[in-house]
Amino acid sequence: MPGAGTDSTKPWTEGGPVIILVEPQLGENIGSAVRAMGNFGLSRLRLVNPREGWPNPKAVTFASGADRILDSARLFPDVRSAVADLQFVAATTARERGMAKPVLGADVMAGEAAGRLAAGEDVGFLFGRERTGLYTEEVSLADAILTLPVNPAFASLNLGMAVAVVGYEWFKLASNGALPFAPPDRSLQADRADLFAFFDHIERELETAGFFRSPEKKPSTIRNIRNIFHRQNLTRQDLATLHGMVVALAEGREGRQGRQSAAKAARAAKKGESEPRE
């Protein structure tokens, strides 16, 4: 859903856990992570010693309009200082670290974070370097481990993708799973009399068009046609559209027949003019 889902008239959702990116290597990856944050209502970003320095113009490009998150990002020299004011920190990793810490998936961790935030605590999710992830010493600074059910043989996620998956679970919980839009209201259900009127219309035009070639099969064919429409749970708007379609087809047939008759008459007249007179 690139680009098309942006609507500047809607309120910007903010808050949620702090997202902490530890020594991100590329501005592009920071921007992609920030775009994911914007998608899922996460607005607080902390950067620990980004390799290419800060600010980074490539991050702006890849953030795709989530500039406000970049503008308010905070910079830290190390993980210890980045998490010092947080009451609960979850370290993301795909590898077992041999530590006696709770290990939670993103959905369960979202619930844990929501409960703590509601209680007045501040929460942070720690994401490691693109190539090596978090160091074991950095994981030891966290209260819990956040991991995902990924393929054990290929568990490496792009930084932006990892933030997106975690952010999705957070926002799904925070928004009660509300989708951004719903299908439009359906027209009122067609009543039986409207449906019968349509059957009369279409059967009359089919008869005129010579559709019922076999008198013996006509009753069963009509039943089949009616059953097709019965199964569709048609609305009044549906029937209005179908009536219009049948009218257009009938008028098109009549127009075609008229053009054919006119052409035939013109050919006859031309032939009469070309015959020699005695």
From TrEMBL:
Protein family membership: Belongs to the class IV-like SAM-binding methyltransferase superfamily. RNA methyltransferase TrmH family.
Pfam families, per the entry: SpoU_methylase
Region entry Disordered, spans: 253-278
Entry protein name: RNA methyltransferase
GO biological process: methylation
Keywords from the UniProt entry: Methyltransferase, S-adenosyl-L-methionine, Transferase
SUPFAM superfamilies: alpha/beta knot
Organism: Ancylobacter crimeensis
One Gene Ontology MF term: methyltransferase activity
All copies of domain tRNA/rRNA methyltransferase SpoU type, residue ranges: 18-168
Gene3D superfamilies, per database record: 1.10.8.590, 3.40.1280.10
InterPro entries for the chain: Alpha/beta_knot_MTases, RNA_MeTrfase_TrmJ/LasT, SpoU_MeTrfase, tRNA_m1G_MTases_N
